[in-house]
């Protein structure tokens, strides 16, 4: 049986100012297939899918959906054509309830006598949430009460309750916990089994090979290749297509030593946060990479905030013994050389509507000033140095962060803290959304920093990166430390999972 094309792009292009983000891309997605869209950070993946899903207008070129010319006016219009998207960042509206978020733009479904029947809307939302087993999510609650992960789950329902013909999943899996990821895979397969198609954008190449029926590779906004996935295709093949040359070199550390001999630079004593963390006692050593692992709800993300003085209602102490400082606020943390990169980068890590320069310089103002004056030249030099170090793909340092691709935003977060020259870096999900090549350079940089005597706390849901990089790994479950593992004793997935669940 010949395959039927669901969507086809013909010479599709998108220009933002002087940036040619997508250049005459022609590719097609068949009905009933999972199609991977891969490429380095900034290669145009999101821009293409944003055009397909009506988020961006098309600069030039055409799209055809089931053979018909397709020109979505906006996202709702795309939904009405059976096309939806789950984006990288949080995409729920804070002031609305769960149900109002799910049916946003389609409220007319529930209008009775000229007013919205909230009861009927909540009832319908309940039904859809139950299909996914999201029984802890209440349709009538304001969405703001839910975690990043739960809000992503609400978005899954929003994007699929109307049985889309085409679902786009833009770099979402790496933002989710193991369970959330499984739910998303289930959903993707469900759409496929019903004859729908899914475009998956992911930097996890193993995931792409396992999940997808075919793959399209982009490089610098151009279409490089589309091909079906076969058993012969390897991750290295994909990398080669992505960068245009053979790649060599190791990804993770190769040594098996646990570098924990240095003096204690941070000490947590009897830290408790009601309902989140219990009796946390932990020490971080100079030059160490301390991994924190667990399921997303384990308290691991909150532990990072505690180390940065960013959580209220906490008892116990977080201190820096060498400096004789107790961290009780973000201000003290920054002033004492502690940096923190949040998992929730758009809300907590960056000023989205400010320039790269403003973002990189903000936390280093004290370092940059001389006699109370900050020279614009020094700011520019400083920003250029760290943006270049992190390989940020940008027009120039005055570009707004909102105009950067997801992975490049993440690089700005890291550049900001590297520039500050902090002694302790608490990095929550540091390589989220980052392409394989830059990931390798971040791992290299982490090693370089520890050699300089800096200490790193790496909070991650990627077990392999924890195994690959940490001197010591602390595992949390239900807010408590359940295990501590040393690199030199051998870190393995089985051991870690044993303490996680
Ligand atoms: N709103 C915007 N304004 C200006 N430039 C933009 C905008 N959105 C994207 N770009 C630029 O378009 C190019 C492609 O970005 P895009 O987000 O499509 O990349 P991507 O392949 O999805 O990257 P990533 O893997 O990092 O998410 C980048 O150079 C980016 O800076």
TrEMBL record:
Pfam families noted in UniProt: ABC_tran (PF00005)
Domain of life from the UniProt record: Bacteria
Gene3D superfamilies: P-loop containing nucleotide triphosphate hydrolases
Claim: Repeat is one of the keywords in the record: yes
Keywords: ATP-binding, Nucleotide-binding, Repeat, Transport
ABC transporter domain location: 7-245, 260-499
PANTHER family in alphabetical order: CARBOHYDRATE TRANSPORT ATP-BINDING PROTEIN MG119-RELATED (PTHR43790), GALACTOFURANOSE TRANSPORTER ATP-BINDING PROTEIN YTFR (PTHR43790:SF9)
The protein's name in its UniProt record: Sugar ABC transporter ATP-binding protein
Species this protein is from: Christensenella massiliensis
